[in-house]
């Protein structure tokens, strides 16, 4: 005898199929994009604002190794986001929703983080803007690759 309070049994939600190779290729592409976002952002700020962002003004438009480290850190964040998305796709019922929330909150934190350090407000604002664009790039590019 069936329980009248339960109603019909619903089938389990279908698993989202994805290609891990394509996901990681998209992750590598995203890593390149966000590294370039950092480099272009630093160059624009140093060139047009004549700022000593990440290096003394006489270091040129690119700056120095700090710019490279910043770009590599952004690329690493994109690869970490790819790993996160891969795990969520394998284990979670609504992986893209969880991914969006996690990356969105991490982007908010990365955008606010520069304001917790010392330095000029202009430098803090510039780094916050670059971090925001990096986070938005990760948030939009990776899920669209599925």
Automatic annotation (TrEMBL):
The keyword Ribonucleoprotein does not apply. The chain crosses the membrane at residues 23-49, 69-91, 98-117, 123-142. The keyword Transmembrane applies. Keywords: Membrane, Transmembrane, Transmembrane helix. This is Integral membrane protein. It comes from Actinocorallia longicatena.
């Amino acid at each position: 005898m069936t329980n009248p309070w339960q109603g019909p049994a619903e089938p389990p939600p279908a698993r989202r199929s994805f290609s891990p190779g394509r996901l990681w290729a998209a992750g590598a592409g995203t890593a390149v994009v966000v590294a370039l976002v950092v480099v272009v952002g630093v160059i624009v700020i140093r060139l047009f604002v004549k700022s000593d962002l990440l290096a003394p003004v006489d270091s040129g438009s690119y700056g120095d190794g700090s710019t490279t480290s910043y770009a590599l850190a952004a690329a690493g964040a994109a690869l970490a986001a790819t790993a996160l998305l891969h795990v969520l796709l394998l284990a979670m019922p609504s992986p893209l929703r969880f991914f969006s929330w996690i990356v969105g909150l991490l982007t908010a934190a990365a955008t606010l983080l520069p304001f917790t350090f010392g330095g000029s407000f202009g430098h803090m604002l510039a780094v916050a803007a670059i971090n925001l664009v990096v986070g938005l790039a990760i948030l939009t590019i990776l899920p669209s690759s599925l």
